[in-house]
Structure formats: C-alpha cells, structure tokens
Amino acid sequence: MIKGIIFDLDGTLIDTLKTIAKAANFALWKNKLPLYQNEQFLDMIGKGKNVLVQKMLEPYNPDENLIKQVTKDFDTFFLAHPIEASELYPGIYVTIEALRDQGIKTAVLSNKDDNITQLVVKHFFADHFQYIKGRLDKVAAKPDRMMMINAMAAMKLLPMETLMVGDMAVDIEFARNSNVSSCAVTWGFGRRKDLTKAKPDFIIDKPVSLLGLLLEQNHAR
Questions:
Q1: Residue 47: its pLDDT value, please?
Q2: Residues 30-89: pLDDT tens digits?
Q3: 42, 127, 132, 139: which sits with the fewest CB atoms below 10 Å from its CB?
Q4: pLDDT of 114-169, one tens digit each?
Q5: CB of 88 within 8 A of CB of 14?
Q6: Nearest to 9 by CA among 105, 101, 118
Q7: DSSP assignment, residue 131?
C-alpha cells in the first residue's frame, strides 16, 4: 500500500523554467558571456545548480574563478527573485489537497538549494507537505539515495510504502537507487522518450491521474 508520495519540485509541481533561465542568463550577462534561450536550459537542469553552471559554461573552458563567480551571481539573482515567473502546473494544487485529505503523507525532495526550495514550496503550498528538503552541502544530491532515506525516516515510511513522482530520468534513477516505486510525469521538463527509456513503474500525463493510480494500487493490495 502506498502511504507516502515524494515529489520532485522543478518541472513536477512548479514550472520554474523561466525563473531558472533568468537567473542563469543574469549570471552569464554579469560575466559578459552569451545568453541562452529558455529551452536550451532543459538539457542542463535536473541535477542541481553546480551541474547547471558547469554545463552552461562548458563551451568556454572556464577556470575555477569563473565557475565560482557565475555561481555566486546565479545565487544572487535567485535569492532576490526565488519565485519570479514560476507557476503551478494546472491541477497540481487540487491533487496535493486531495492527497492530504486522504491521509497520504507527502514530501518534496529537490536538487535546488535547500533555502530556495523551502521558500518556493511554502509560498505555493503553505504547510501542505510534511517534509521539504533541497540540496545541502553535506548530503549527496539525487540520484544518490541519501535524501530519500532521510525523508522516509522522518516520515516513518518503508520503501514499499513510498512512491517517487518526478519529471526527469534522474528522478526515476533516484527511486530505483532508493528501492521505491516511481511515477514519471510528462508535463514537465523531461522528454517522454527519455522518461520511457528510464523505465519508471508508471507514467502519467496529468496530475489528477495520480489519484487514480493511488486508488488502483492501494485497492489492488
């Protein structure tokens, strides 16, 4: 029986692409580097800020000083504008409310920095989630299983009771590494072919379908 659902943040609950693109392009502009189109960042995001910065600077063979400065400028923009241009995906809020009403435990695990993750989730969802955690320096990011282990321990969930929901292949790998079931969503940043290749246990095309999936799985058991 599924008793808890762990959600990715960017591209799963909230469309943050424009926010990420603005922060990244601000950092590039500050360092007199060419800017990217929003869609180009889709191939760079998902594994955290450090990987994003590395990928967007890759064409310029950056030294350590440039990487540090671009990262600092990225952080400066994000801290000042953590929710600018971000919006909930249609159907997400009512789905989260329905899960809460059914007594399902819910959490958010993100490779976004923890301080930003906390701000964003609480802005859009207030206290709907029992556990929220973003990237911390001393905890390995997804797809390493440590974030999941910590979340399940805090929420008193067993792997067999837990479902991971995310929009990218890294989320499916994260679930597999954590020995929990996975559900890929197609409305986010990940391409359907990449999600299919990652072999999630389930794929859904709209948030409300998660409620039907939950009913089906729990009834079957």
A1: 87
A2: 999 999 999 999 999 988 899 999 999 999 999 999 999 999 999 999 999 999 999 999
A3: 127
A4: 999 999 999 999 999 999 999 998 889 999 999 999 999 999 999 999 999 999 99
A5: yes
A6: 118
A7: E
Residues in the chain: 221
Which domains occur in the chain, in start order? Answer: 4-15+86-220 (3.40.50.1000), 17-80 (1.10.150.240)
Q: What is the DSSP string of 33-102?
A: -----GGGGGGT-SS-HHHHHHHHHGGG---HHHHHHHHHHHHHHHHH-TTTT-EEPTTHHHHHHHHHHT
Q: Look up tokens 């909230």; give the residue.
A: 14
Other CB atoms within a 10 A radius of the CB of residue 209 amount to: 16
Q: What is the rounded distance in angstroms from the CA atom of residue 141 to the CA atom of residue 152?
A: 16
Report the run of H or E that residue 4 belongs to, with start and end.
strand 4-7
